[in-house]
């Protein structure tokens, strides 16, 4: 049977577009020839945006329908765009508009195509490296997609952590003391230092025979706090985690194991930063991460990660994307509550401020950037690496970036001093050179895949290769 067309609920995007153009609801309703109440219902997602109004909006504001696509759809379009950039498809190029149309009208077929391509890419890599066969999708990719499908929010686990916090007896604001006391009273476990754990690559271990929790002696207090919350989640909420995984988790055994670790970490973060308390403090401080971390006694990274999970229905926070990567550009964590989609193949864009953060350790870098779908983001980047404990110690160089749309950015302290209306200094960033269509970028490291190259001798660009427009051949 033919698939029914999905209704487009794009309230936040519609409201963002109207506010960007400084239009009242009455003014935009007049442009669309609808009543202000009807427009208000569309902005609140009580009504979908019909096709004829979508077309009118695109024509009036000179945008494409992809601008209104939801987060999941935008990420899928990005994945399809990168896949079609493979030289394998050089003789059958597909315009971006057609990709967006395919994702909207045939999402299941698009998923099947991406799965088939991953299988092909894995087999090609196996043959090239003469290595053992690898799965079409690595377990960490499976878990990443699964978390993204849930918008990085798990309600049952989040509420369980919040209820636990509210029932905990915390004296003088000492959460670590309260957690240690709880572990002792409820499980008979006491804390003990173990100087050999770092050499063994462990951050905590339960010695069940001696009823002790062993911890390294030199780790930061916020790390100890997080580990105690992890242990409580494992001891007291393992049944809930198992129920979530059985009901809706990934199917592969390794992916399930990684998803269990992720949910344990999720519970720990939700316990240290309870949802409604964090939402209140974030609004009070205009999302000043340093103020929030001092209020709760946690780390910069813990606050940043937790802010990206505030997607409780009816009580949503700002939809942030969150990424953590090392100095070589390897992505360690990647979650997105908005349209921002990271490249799956190749390294991130070098113009991103997260790389500049490595040159200014411990300092916050703020950047306005524009992606190739014309969305503008406010990005906050900072290193979060620990200091070396000895001369021989070589701690990993880590940085994180937290980003939101420019409309939401106005609600944060990081917009202070920025002219949010002047976009002349907005930095254009791409999804990685392989899939980026910006030909005039002097930072390009290789040509865009899937398009014919202009090898004419009458002109030379800022890079020694330029791609012909889509559909044109030499």
From TrEMBL:
<dbReference type="InterPro" id="IPR018653">
    <property type="entry name" value="ScfR_C"/>
</dbReference>
<keyword id="KW-0238">DNA-binding</keyword>
<protein>
    <submittedName>
        <fullName>DUF2083 domain-containing protein</fullName>
    </submittedName>
</protein>
<keyword id="KW-0804">Transcription</keyword>
<dbReference type="InterPro" id="IPR050807">
    <property type="entry name" value="TransReg_Diox_bact_type"/>
</dbReference>
<dbReference type="Pfam" id="PF01381">
    <property type="entry name" value="HTH_3"/>
</dbReference>
<dbReference type="Pfam" id="PF06114">
    <property type="entry name" value="Peptidase_M78"/>
</dbReference>
<dbReference type="InterPro" id="IPR001387">
    <property type="entry name" value="Cro/C1-type_HTH"/>
</dbReference>
<dbReference type="InterPro" id="IPR010359">
    <property type="entry name" value="IrrE_HExxH"/>
</dbReference>
<keyword id="KW-0805">Transcription regulation</keyword>
<dbReference type="Pfam" id="PF09856">
    <property type="entry name" value="ScfRs"/>
</dbReference>
<comment type="similarity">
    <text>Belongs to the short-chain fatty acyl-CoA assimilation regulator (ScfR) family.</text>
</comment>
<dbReference type="InterPro" id="IPR010982">
    <property type="entry name" value="Lambda_DNA-bd_dom_sf"/>
</dbReference>
<dbReference type="InterPro" id="IPR026281">
    <property type="entry name" value="HTH_RamB"/>
</dbReference>
<feature type="domain" description="HTH cro/C1-type">
    <location>
        <begin position="14"/>
        <end position="68"/>
    </location>
</feature>
């Amino acid at each position: 049977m033919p698939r029914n067309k999905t209704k487009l609920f794009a309230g936040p995007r519609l409201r963002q577009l109207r506010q960007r153009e400084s239009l009242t609801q009455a003014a935009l309703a007049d442009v669309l020839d609808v009543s202000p109440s009807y427009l208000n219902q569309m902005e609140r997602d009580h009504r979908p945006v019909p096709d004829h109004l979508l077309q009118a909006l695109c024509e009036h504001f000179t945008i494409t329908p992809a601008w209104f696509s939801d987060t999941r759809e935008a990420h899928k379009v990005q994945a399809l765009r990168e896949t079609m950039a493979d030289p394998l498809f050089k003789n059958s190029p597909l315009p971006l508009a057609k990709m967006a149309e395919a994702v909207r009208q045939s999402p299941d077929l698009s998923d099947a195509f991406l799965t088939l391509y991953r299988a092909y890419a894995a087999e090609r890599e196996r043959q090239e490296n003469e290595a053992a066969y690898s799965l079409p999708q690595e377990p960490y990719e499976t878990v990443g997609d699964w978390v993204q499908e849930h918008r990085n929010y798990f309600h049952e686990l989040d509420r369980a952590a919040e209820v636990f916090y509210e029932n905990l007896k915390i004296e003088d604001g000492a959460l670590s003391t309260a957690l240690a006391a709880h572990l002792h009273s409820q499980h008979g476990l006491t804390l003990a230092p173990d100087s050999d754990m770092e050499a063994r690559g462990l951050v905590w271990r339960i010695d069940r025979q001696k009823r002790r929790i062993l911890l390294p002696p030199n780790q930061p207090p916020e790390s100890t706090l997080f580990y105690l919350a992890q242990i409580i989640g494992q001891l007291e909420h393992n049944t809930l985690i198992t129920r979530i995984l059985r009901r809706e988790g990934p199917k592969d055994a390794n992916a399930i194991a990684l998803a269990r670790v992720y949910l344990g970490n999720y519970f720990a973060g939700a316990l240290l930063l309870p949802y409604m308390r964090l939402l209140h403090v974030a609004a009070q401080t205009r999302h000043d991460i340093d103020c929030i971390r001092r209020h709760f006694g946690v780390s910069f990274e813990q606050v940043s990660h937790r802010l990206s999970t505030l997607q409780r229905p009816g009580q949503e926070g700002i939809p942030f994307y969150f990424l953590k990567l090392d100095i070589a550009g390897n992505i360690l964590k990647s979650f997105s509550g908005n349209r921002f989609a990271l490249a799956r193949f190749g390294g991130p864009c070098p113009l991103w401020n997260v790389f500049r953060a490595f040159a200014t350790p411990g300092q916050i870098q703020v950047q306005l950037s524009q992606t190739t779908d014309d969305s503008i983001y406010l990005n906050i980047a900072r290193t979060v690496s620990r200091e070396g404990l000895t001369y021989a110690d070589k701690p990993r160089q880590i940085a994180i970036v937290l980003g939101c749309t420019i409309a939401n950015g106005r609600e944060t302290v990081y917009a202070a001093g920025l002219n949010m209306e002047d976009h002349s200094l907005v930095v254009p960033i791409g999804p990685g050179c392989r899939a980026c269509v910006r030909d005039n970028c002097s930072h390009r490291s290789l040509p865009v895949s899937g398009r014919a190259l202009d090898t004419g001798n009458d002109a030379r660009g800022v890079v020694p290769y330029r791609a012909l427009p889509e559909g044109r051949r030499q």
